[in-house]
Hints:
alpha+beta, outer membrane lipoprotein receptor (LolB), chain A, twelve-stranded mixed beta sheet, 5 helices, 12 strands, about 40% strand, globular
Amino acid sequence: MQPSIRRLILSALSLCVLLPAVAPAESTPQATKWLEKFMGVYEQGPFSTKYTADIEIDNGDQSVDGSMDGSLTYRDPSHMHMEMSMLLAGIPGAPADQTMEMQMLSVSDGELTWTQIDMPALGMQQVMKISLEDAKKLAGAQGVGMGNPAPMDPVQQLRSMTEQLDFELVKVEAGEAHLEAKITDEAKTSLGQMAALPGLETMTLILDEKTGFPRRFSMGGERPIVAITFSDFKFLDEKSLAADLFVYTPPQGVQIMDLGAMTPAAQPVDQ
Length: 271
């Protein structure tokens, strides 16, 4: 895969499933009440949700438009099952009307999080794994939204983001609480390559007034870089969850990348 294509795809993924962590938050008391309600969803038991996303990344000479559809089933902090499909347009070097499809499966089985990425047009299949413990270490060391409990859980990464940005409550109406946070220059220092994206000014979060679960969220400004809509949220009876939903077996012959090698403990020490 061309490096430019790989970078743009990773940028798209980072906006939806690898949200970065920034400086500790000081949200207003009114906003904090709603954020605590959102965070409490994970303590109330298993749940499932579906989501869609629209992405528009413009780096001047390169731009990518994309859309995502996914579903998430959460059992507990160490068991999660997520499926996602992505369609990208504007791939560098490709015809303007050509699109690229990607599918992703991510499973946390109690000890490891497995992520399988398939890109049929490129004949590419990639499997990555990381222990839940290593994911936490990596998140703490690098300030990226990986881990605790699973790197590819978009709701958990959104939850992590809300713990880091300073939110204000804008309004509560029609069964929704609207919150907004400014992405300041100080916050951008921890965003890595994302900080260079034009128009990265605010994050807007809309929560369901009854459950506290997200309905919509966006990042950008007047023209969002990413916008995600969640739907069909529901709490589940743990007994109704199939046991094999949280089991993953890599395809035979596929190369497996161990992301645990990126943790500080796995890095060589200079003598």
